[in-house]
Design brief:
The complex is a heterodimer of chains A (115) and B (116).
Chain A: E1 4-6, E2 10-13, E3 19-25, E4 31-38, E5 42-49, E6 56-57, E7 65-70, E8 73-78, E9 87-94, E10 105-106, E11 110-114
Chain B: E1 3-5, E2 10-14, E3 19-21, E4 24-26, E5 33-39, E6 46-52, E7 59-61, E8 64-69, E9 74-79, E10 88-95, E11 104-106, E12 110-115
Parallel strand pairs in B: 2-12
Antiparallel strand pairs in B: 1-4, 3-9, 5-6, 5-10, 7-8, 8-9, 10-11, 10-12
The chains are: A mainly beta (115), B mainly beta (116).
């Protein structure tokens, strides 16, 4: 079974703190994604990566950065957390092969609260 | 631009009722994929089905069935004889074009509550 794990289920941080959200997948997938989920807005893509050290902006990259030093690990960084970044963060991974049709496998999510 | 609309924000049914979750999409691509995911209270999205744009056959999997109609750009999901364990948020998603790894668009989700 594909397994995507995220470092924390719940996280509480203060405004201005630097926050790291970690995601690890064990299926050797090339693609990894970070989404945020907010009520009424569904999932919105923050960043994605299709290879080690590669990254692409999604729909809402402002206030975030990412790091992918190893294939299995994709980190989301909030340089200076703000209250409007309080949200559920979901990590996903997918295979690049055509046969996979880019089905994404999701982690359990990290609910981040910024006070 | 690609867009997925799930007009039903919340649905509440009593166990054993049938329920249909609506999904309408917009895309200019001729080749695309449609997905349904389930997000139970645990939070992890679970893949339910994938359908490509060239296959309009409806699909049935146990109590779940999907109705794909290109003419109305809809990909509706029906749960027959609903159960309490079906309570979750359900997301419809559109992926395309197929060469663009980042273009998965999710709807806002429909929260389904099945009461005993």
């Amino acid at each position: 079974d594909v397994k995507v794990t995220q470092s924390s289920r719940y996280l509480v941080k203060r405004t201005g703190e630097k926050v790291f959200l970690e995601c690890v997948q064990d299926m050797d997938h090339e693609n990894m994604f970070w989404y945020r989920q907010d009520p009424g807005l569904g999932l919105r893509l923050i960043y994605f990566s299709y290879d080690v050290k590669m990254k692409e902006k999604g729909d809402i990259p402002e206030g975030y950065s990412v790091s992918r030093e190893k294939k299995e690990r994709f980190s989301l960084i909030l340089e200076s957390a703000s209250t409007n970044q309080t949200s559920m963060y979901l990590c996903a991974s997918s295979d690049s092969s055509a046969s996979s049709y880019n089905e994404q496998f999701f982690g359990p999510g990290t609910r981040l609260t910024v006070l | 631009a690609q867009k997925v609309t799930q007009a039903q924000t919340e649905i509440s049914v009593v166990e054993k009722e049938d329920v249909t979750l609506d999904c309408v999409y917009e895309t200019r691509d001729t080749t695309y994929y449609l997905f349904w995911y389930k997000q139970p209270p645990s939070g992890e999205l679970v893949f339910l089905i994938r359908r490509n744009s060239f296959d309009e056959q409806n699909e049935i999997s146990g109590r779940y069935s999907w109705n794909f109609q290109k003419s109305t750009s809809s990909f509706n999901f029906t749960i027959t004889a609903s159960q309490v364990v079906d309570s979750a948020v359900y997301f419809c998603a559109l992926f395309g074009p197929v060469y663009n790894n980042n273009d998965m668009r999710f709807g806002a989700g429909t929260r389904l509550t099945v009461k005993p």
